[in-house]
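Tokens in:
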């Protein structure tokens, strides 16, 4: 963190932490429920899910479940990181927060909705949302990693 970066108040930090804890737990609930429903479709031998022609649908919905569940845990980790590493967040963390939230919606949604519209064994056009979500997530992770490095350097300078 450089002296030129703008800092937000501790109220903003509390809001970010609470927001990501909420996002994480609700996403975990939603995507674990999706996983349960996918298991139920498998257990009840639902043809539109298990037929050989539905392999792409199964893959897309499994990818949506897996990515959504993992991203829920990333939100919880980000909230914990903010809680333990910062006294005041800076602009970079607000941008990382927005990118993380956007990517957490767009990436699994791209997989999920692509599974509804299968064309000759290929996922639907919604699959093009997945790379957009992935880019947002990569940007968020880059900002978080950069802030982690900056906070480590500051700690070493204080010692």
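Residues out:
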């Amino acid at each position: 963190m450089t002296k030129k970066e703008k800092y937000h108040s501790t109220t903003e930090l509390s809001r970010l932490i609470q927001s990501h804890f909420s996002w994480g737990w609700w996403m975990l609930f939603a995507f674990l429920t999706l996983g349960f429903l996918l298991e139920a479709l498998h257990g009840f031998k639902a043809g539109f899910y298990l037929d050989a022609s539905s392999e792409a649908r199964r893959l897309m919905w499994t990818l949506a479940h897996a990515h959504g569940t993992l991203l829920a845990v990333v939100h919880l980790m980000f909230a914990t990181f903010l809680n333990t590493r910062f006294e005041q967040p800076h602009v970079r963390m607000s941008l990382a927060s927005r990118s993380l939230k956007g990517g957490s919606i767009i990436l699994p949604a791209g997989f999920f909705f692509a599974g509804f519209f299968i064309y000759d064994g290929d996922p639907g056009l919604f699959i093009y949302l997945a790379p957009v979500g992935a880019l947002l997530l990569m940007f968020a992770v880059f900002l978080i990693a950069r802030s982690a490095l900056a906070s480590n350097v500051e700690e070493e300078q204080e010692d």
